[in-house]
Write a structure and sequence with these properties.
about 375 residues; Rna Polymerase Sigma Factor, Chain: A; 4-stranded mixed β-sheet; 15 helices; 11 strands; binds NADPH dihydro-nicotinamide-adenine-dinucleotide phosphate; binds 1-deoxy-D-xylulose-5-phosphate; binds manganese (II) ion
């Protein structure tokens, strides 16, 4: 019986994890579930999986039906015996509880890529010091993790992340300023939360994933690459020094990497479609174009600097800009402009202290909000 907690249980990743746990109820005991605002949904899923604690992390709600506030969540993490936590809140908000869990030696199934982007070195060090594992949930990183198992990474030549290219792969670039929220939320292959879906459309999602891979697999920018693979069947590829390539494949369904991460090293039997190679016919691969995807270029440039103040600024500015786009305050093509200008002249340093990381994130958000008020 594995004792599990889920941060962000009401979201796209969280809900799919709940389905897996319901199917495998003899193997999991749910210690806690969190939501930020969706109280009714939290209570409903809490009953489904018989969760011991329910926490609503937003401070805006006052209810005695569940625990409220981040401090209550941290108390549960501190006081309960927990084997693994699925970190699946969206954005930088996932960092503090993920860090506290690692400090206690709890394994993390990591969906919340933003925490690895902002604090990869700190999270890795904390995991190592406390003998905790970080198992990726992100489909590409789960693919790489599976391909690297049993291999000596000194022979690793490249990690190649695959990208769908999003909904605007073929759209004329001069029409990007007219992209609507609805169009940006129409991902060709994956059904996901709103923030990551916009990130996929700008390809900042792949930029964040490159930085996530940099820390999960301890590789520099020279060993990281991206290829657009519109079918999303190959979830990523690793290349070894003898010219051998390993790839992980499957239908685009997040239940595969979620179940893998929370059950590792075991596997769950999933009732989802299998690949039919005769129907697939062909898999295609395209080089990403930086004019179409400036966010990917910005992230690749940040990787060359490799200081986490820049990663923090990139992530914070992206969160601010995507939120503004979703609220129809800025245009789609203004997202990269805000990110690039936030990073410009930002302090370049490695920040290892958690409070300093939080301060840096605030500073970057203030800067990007100011830049935004200048353009609207
Ligand atoms: N969806 C996917 O297929 C994939 C997602 N990921 C990553 O997983 C993470 C979650 O994504 P996804 O499930 O799509 O997101 P969703 O928007 O669907 O869900 C987000 C979850 O986080 C909670 N939440 C929102 N804001 C906060 C906050 N400020 N503090 C704490 N919790 C908060 C939400 O609560 P409430 O419902 O109450 O608002 C919800 O439970 C992201 O980091 C994303 O990049 C990675 C790969 C694939
Ligand atoms: C399912 C998953 O892991 C997402 O992060 C996915 O990668 C999004 O698709 P893109 O390749 O379009 O970013
Ligand atoms: Mn991904």
């Amino acid at each position: 019986m594995r004792k599990i907690g889920i941060i962000g249980a009401t979201g796209s990743i969280g809900s799919q994890a709940i389905d897996i746990i319901e199917q495998e109820k003899d193997d999991f005991q749910v210690i806690f579930l969190t939501a930020h605002n969706q109280l009714d949904k939290l209570i409903k899923i809490g009953k489904k999986v018989n969760a011991k604690h329910l926490v609503l992390t937003s401070e805006r709600h006052h209810t005695d039906k569940v625990l409220t506030g981040i401090d209550e969540l941290l108390k549960v993490i501190e006081n309960e015996e927990i084997d693994i936590i699925l970190s699946a809140a969206v954005g930088f908000s996932g960092l503090i509880p993920t860090y506290c869990a690692l400090k206690k030696g709890i394994d993390i199934a990591l969906a919340n890529k933003e925490s690895m982007v902002a604090a990869g070195r700190l999270l890795n060090e904390t995991a190592k010091k406390n003998d905790a594992k970080i198992i990726p949930v992100d489909s590409e990183h789960s693919a790489v993790y599976q391909c690297l198992l049993g291999h000596d990474t000194s022979y690793l030549e490249k990690i190649i992340l695959t990208a769908s290219g999003g909904p605007f792969r073929n759209r004329p670039i001069d029409s990007f300023e007219f992209i609507s929220v609805e169009e940006a939320l129409n991902h060709p292959n994956w059904s996901m939360g709103r923030k990551i879906t916009v990130d996929s459309a700008t390809m900042m999602n792949k930029g964040l994933e490159l930085i996530e891979a940099r820390f999960l697999f301890n590789v520099g920018h020279d060993k990281l690459d991206v290829v657009i693979h519109p079918e999303s069947i190959i979830h990523s590829i690793v290349a070894f020094c003898d010219g051998s390539y390993l790839a992980q494949m499957g239908v685009p369904d997040m239940k595969i990497p979620i179940s893998y991460a929370i059950s590792y090293p075991e596997r769950v039997k999933l009732d989802i479609p299998r690949l039919n190679f005769f129907e697939l016919k062909k898999l295609t691969f395209i080089k990403p174009d930086f004019e179409r995807y400036p966010c990917l270029r910005i992230a690749m440039e940040a990787l060359k600097i490799d200081k986490n103040s820049i990663y923090i600024a990139l992530n914070a500015a992206n969160e601010v800009a995507v939120d503004a786009f979703l609220k129809e305050v800025i245009k789609f093509n203004e997202i990269p402009m805000i990110i690039e200008r936030t990073i410009e002249d930002f302090p370049v340093e490695d920040v290892m202290d958690i409070e300093e990381i939080v301060k840096m994130d605030k500073l970057a958000r203030e800067k990007s909000r100011k830049l935004m008020s200048n353009i609207i």
